[in-house]
Amino acid sequence: MAWLNADTVFDPDSLGLSIVGIAAKLGKHDSGEHQHKMGQLLFTQSGCIRITLSKRLCMLPPTRVVWIPANTKHRAEMKGVVGYRSIYIDTALVKSLPNEVVVLEVNPLLRAVLERIAISPFDTGWQQGPALNLLTVGLDEIRSAHREPMLLRLPADRRLLNFSGDELPPPLNIFATTAGAGEKTISRIFMQETGLSYQQWRQQWRFLKSIELLSERNSISSIASALGFASDSAFVYFFKKMSGSTPRAYIPVSR
Fold first, then answer.
1. Which of 31, 54, 98, 160 lies 20 to 30 angstroms, CA to CA, from 73?
2. Where is the HTH araC/xylS-type domain (predicted)?
C-alpha cells in the first residue's frame, strides 16, 4: 500500500504485482484522462468522485464502488476532500470480474474487506493463506453486490450543448431553443445516443448531481433549490423514487 499526495505520479502497471492497493486524502484533484493495464476498484471513505468514461458520467459516493476494467480510459475529479482508495487487479490472474464498467452497492463486509486490501503492503502474498482468504471473500461479495444504475451516457451530437455535469439541464422546450433544433429532433437524438428520452435523461442527471451534492454535505433545502425542485419534500420524493432510499439514509447530510 502507498499513501499518496495529490501531486504524486503513480503507475501501478510498473510494479509487476497482481494486486496493488493505494490510499490518499485528496482535496481538489483531477487525474486527467488515463488508463491502466490493470483493472481498478475505486471507492472513497468520504467525499464524492466524479468519473468520466468515454461520454459517460458517474458520481461515486462513499456508499458505492466502481469497477473499471483494464485499458478503459477514464478521468477522476474531486472537488472537496476525499478519502481516496484504489485497488488495482491483474485481470489475467483474477478472471471473475466484469468486462464492463459497473457501480456496485457496498455493504459493511465488502467495505471492510476492500479497506483491508487497499492498505495491505505491496509485498502481500495474495496466492495463499489469510491474504487469499481475504481476497476470495472480497471477490465473492463483489459478484453478489447489487449493481447501481449510476452511469449516465452523455450525448455526442454536435448540435447539443457540451454537458459538463455542473449546470442543471433546462426543460426540453428551453433546451431546444438554445440548441437550435426542434423538440422532436432533440428527443430523437437523446434516445438514439443515450437510450433515454430527454426528460428521463434530465431526471437521471438530477439524481447523479444530487448524490454529489449530498456527499459534499449540502443541506436538503440547498440541493432542492439547486436542482430546480419546488420544495424539499418534492426532492425527497424524487430521490426515494430514483434510489429506493431517502437522501438522509443514502448519505447523512446537515440540515
1. 160
2. 172-253
The cell 494486486 sits on which residue?
Answer: 19
Could you give the CA distance from residue 185 to residue 133 in angstroms, rounded to a whole number?
Answer: 54
Ranges under pLDDT 50 in the chain: 254-255
Strand partners, 125: none
Tens-place pLDDT, residues 114-134: 999 999 999 999 999 999 999
Looking at residue 255, its pLDDT comes to 41
Spell out the alpha helix ranges (H) of the chain. 108-118, 129-144, 172-179, 183-194, 198-215, 220-226, 232-243, 247-250
Distance CA 152, CA 207 (A): 10
Residue 29 β-bridge partners = 78
Cell 434530465, residue?
202
- Entry pTM: 0.86
